[in-house]
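Form 7-S
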Amino acid sequence: MSQTISGGIYVDDPWLSIRVDAGRECVYADWKGFASTIEFRASTLRLMQAIKETNATSTINDTRNLDLVSHEDQLWLRDTWVPLAESSSLQRIAVVVALGGLAKFGVETIIRIVGGKTRLDVRLFNSMEDATAWVDKRKSEG
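Output:
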């Protein structure tokens, strides 16, 4: 059963907003700030639920405001979330990163841990515009 609120908003928590764009077959995750381990893991599972419910082929994750993710949560992403993603309709993950600081370092670390160990096409971007253009281009190619 879908949890979609109005206007494509799927989740709107203090640390994360998830929005669905059916036309793009894309789910957007806008990380707003610090999330505890419980909040982070539950939120990434809600992101997966939105992907599965909508058969999304892409997700764009805006991590510019995400605080550092613990090493344990990084490994959890690799060992739990990525296999779920690989068994879903998901093909592409665009990650918008901060230009510097701990948020950028944390996300780049996650990508290094997960990156080459998945069939998913994972790319880093410095802007939402670039990430969206890449998703649109890849969707039109595939």
